[in-house]
Amino acid sequence: MSVTPLPHGDEDERERPPQRPPQPAPGSAPSLLDSFNYAFEGIIHVLRTQRNLRIHFLAAIVAFAAALAIGVSRLQLIALVLAVAFVLVAEMLNTAIEGAIDVSTTSFDPNAKLAKDIAAGAVLIASITALAVGYLVFESAAGSRATRVLDRVRNAPAEITLVALVLVVLVVIATKAWTGRGTPLRGGLPSGHSALAFAGWMAATYVIGDDHRFLISSLTFVMALLVAQTRVESGVHSALEVFYGGALGALVTLVVFQVFS
After folding, report:
1. Taking 80 as the threshold, does the pLDDT of residue 188 lie above it?
2. Alpha-carbon distance 137 to 161, whole Å?
């Protein structure tokens, strides 16, 4: 019986399992270096596989960059660090609990679903707490700076808001006609809903008085983000179309207020 040898190079092309560090012998504890390596492997795995943790990481980077830019106090920075760590730890524990449940059961179990829901609820509480801490940290410093910048522009009448929104709608329709994609109310470049949402955010920021400007601007910005998210989640628009629409609405409204106020 003869055996046909494999062509040269086929052995190298076979799929090989990923190389992992050697596991400690049974009964022996891993070394300190191995423990750190396993911990970093867990963090990297969650970052690669979990979209929510990637979003939290990006938000943490933005928050820390903003904190350094506006010069928050030492205590404010400590509160921000703890809030961010609280969210990341909760998200990783949620992922670990979901993985353990998926391994332990192969059929639908109401208790398994309840455990996952409770873990997700813990992440939600951590995220809301972090948002509250972030608002308290940035409200005084960022709010005062934003007020000084906006005060350079004279108080604008409410009619300018209507002009800005109408102009945004016209620009969106013209852009969709030029690209030939989507309809005025669905699909295509740019997202009309996102454009109007961010135009409303910019208009509210200009119109509201100094006492509540930061609060109202923050709330309208969050609502604009939620509108943009729903357009992506529903599959009507891509992230690029939503981003372009939001940027278009905010910039057009900003220009209108700068010119006519």
Report:
1. no
2. 30
Local structure of 183: helix, strand or coil: strand
- What does residue 148 show for φ and ψ, rounded to 5 degrees? -65, -40
pTM over 0.85: no
Q: Under the phi-then-psi rule, with left for phi > 0, alpha for psi from -120 to 50, and beta for the rest, what region is 108?
A: beta
Task: Please report which confidence band the pLDDT of residue 145 belongs to, taking 50, 70 and 90 as the band edges.
Answer: low
Preceding amide of 190 cis, omega within 30: yes
Query: DSSP 3-state assignment of 65?
Result: helix
- Give the largest CA-CA distance in the chain: 94
Angle of helix 239-260 relative to helix 213-233, nearest 10 degrees? 150
* Residue (of 97, 103, 127) closest to 115 by Cα position: 97
Measured CA to CA, the distance from residue 108 to residue 37 in angstroms comes to: 35
What letters, b where the CB count within 10 A reaches 16 and e where it falls short, cover 113-133? eeeeeebeebbeebbeebeeb
Contact 207, 158 (CB under 8 A): yes
Domains recognised in the chain with CATH numbers: 46-142 (1.10.287.3610), 159-260 (no CATH)
Indicate which residues carry an active-site annotation.
91
- Token pair of 103, please? 């391994």
What 148-152 contacts at long range (C-beta under 8 Å, 24+ apart), as own/partner pairs, is 150/205, 150/206, 150/213, 151/210
- Confidence label for 211 from pLDDT (cuts 50, 70 and 90): low
DSSP lists the bridge partners of residue 183 as 186
Can you read off the two tokens belonging to residue 205?
């920021």
